[in-house]
Amino acid sequence: MQSVIETHNLSKQYGSVHALNQVNISVDQGDIYGLIGRNGAGKTTLMKIINRQILASEGSFDILGENVTRNDNISLRIGTLIEAPGLYLDLTAYQNIALKCQLAGIRRPGYIEELLHLVNLADTGRKRAKNFSLGMKQRLGLAIALVGDPDILLLDEPTNGMDPQGIAEFRQMILRLNRERHISVVISSHILGELSKFITKLGIIHEGQLIKEARLSDLEHENQDHLTIKAADLKPIVAFLEDQLHITNFTVISPTELHIFEHLQAPESISHPLIKAGILFDTLELDRHSLEDMFLTLTGGAVHA
Ligand SMILES: Nc1ncnc2c1ncn2[C@@H]1O[C@H](COP(=O)(O)OP(=O)(O)OP(=O)(O)O)[C@@H](O)[C@H]1O
């Protein structure tokens, strides 16, 4: 899979504040990459560096396999919605998009109407942006970010402050752009639950450092509810599970720990036969995990700001 964004030890220092510290993220073609972190973790700083709004103190990054320097003309490949969209509040949605098209030298007939339709703003007519709801403003910001047909979208907390319906609508829009236009997306949030429903890869950023990066499918597997068996010697347990209990859905985590993903409702259907057979184990217990638990454990506490 081709990598669309690859950062190499990106760091940013503001005086004594390490806003970013040696960050390496890797976004593949077709990913919806969720960048999750508490307020002040460094999400905006990372996006601004990739968008070349600010310079890194150290490190570099590649976009679509090319190492980016200050002079590379790659700006049209990236569409951004970072912080509040820069809208002209006295203009309509059409006029706002038209201005961006003018700057980008795009004059294709029907182009603006297509974008308005894409973000569900086709019926806003003469209504000025100042009279839009927050969700409408963000969707207009998204349409403006799409001018120039970027390969990559950088969206910094785009659903912040929206109601659940607005969030769901925005999410659907991102999914469509990703599937139908094959746009790779980096989207940040401080609420994991908002991202975990649709992202393909997750990066957890905390106090300027990337403390975890993983594909969502792997994380979901790791964080599935399971029975944990701990024992000094797992070999007789593994043999017993397979040969006597015909259990195959388990993973050996370490020489002394294994996780079983079945029989969750009846752990005794495993523990009793083991005891009867004289096979020793230290503990056998049910572990319930969620991605949110993992996030809280890694970042040390409640995340909702
Ligand atoms: N221009 C600046 N000057 C000084 N410090 C800054 C500047 N911009 C960001 N910082 C600091 O860098 C750190 C990371 O900020 P950043 O805005 O990237 O975090 P964030 O994860 O996007 O948080 P939020 O969700 O609050 O926007 C914070 O400690 C912030 O105060």
UniProtKB/TrEMBL annotation:
* InterPro entries from the UniProt entry: AAA+_ATPase, ABC_transporter-like_ATP-bd, ABC_transporter-like_CS, P-loop_NTPase
SUPFAM superfamilies recorded: P-loop containing nucleoside triphosphate hydrolases
Please state every residue range assigned to the domain named ABC transporter. Answer: 5-232
Q: Does the keyword Nucleotide-binding apply?
A: yes
Record has Membrane as a keyword: no
Gene Ontology molecular-function annotations? ATP binding
**Sorted alphabetically, which keywords does the UniProt record give?**
ATP-binding, Nucleotide-binding, Transport
**What protein family does this chain belong to?**
Belongs to the ABC transporter superfamily.
Full protein name:
ATP-binding cassette domain-containing protein
